């Protein structure tokens, strides 16, 4: 997933950091802003959803091609 995000957002992301955690924590943050939380949603996001969340945060007008359909 990290590699896919870096390819999709190659000019927009400086990097992707994966941090191990315990206790059912699965969060996606951009610049310390929470954009997805397992504890809130009680589910894991699909890769397509992760891409849309990131796109909506950094460049809402960007077309993600087949991921937008």
From TrEMBL:
Domain of life: Bacteria
A Pfam cross-reference name: Rdx
Keywords: Redox-active center
Protein name stated in the entry: SelT/SelW/SelH family protein
